[in-house]
Write a structure and sequence with these properties.
Number of strands: 3
Distance between the termini: 26 Å
Shape: flat
Strand order of the largest sheet: 2-1-3
Number of helices: 3
Mean pLDDT: 77
Structural class: alpha+beta
Length: about 60
């Protein structure tokens, strides 16, 4: 586990799937998205990863988590 935390190795997809089964979420929700994107949700429902620029143009009325 410490090798995962240090970034020495990446966890296999099968391990990520086990984690998402316990958390009741999708694998994509565990991934970092960088500065240009965010995880979006509305009323507790995850809507996916979207470009943050959409907020500037008022295209979406969702909150970024």
């Amino acid at each position: 586990m410490s090798r995962y935390n240090s970034g020495t190795i990446e966890p296999p997809l099968s391990r990520l799937k086990q984690i998402t089964d316990v958390l009741d979420c999708e694998v994509a929700e565990l991934l970092p998205v960088g500065e240009k994107y965010g995880h979006w949700e509305l009323d507790g429902e995850w809507l996916g990863i979207r470009n943050k620029k959409a907020l500037e143009y008022g295209a979406f009325r969702y909150s970024i988590i």
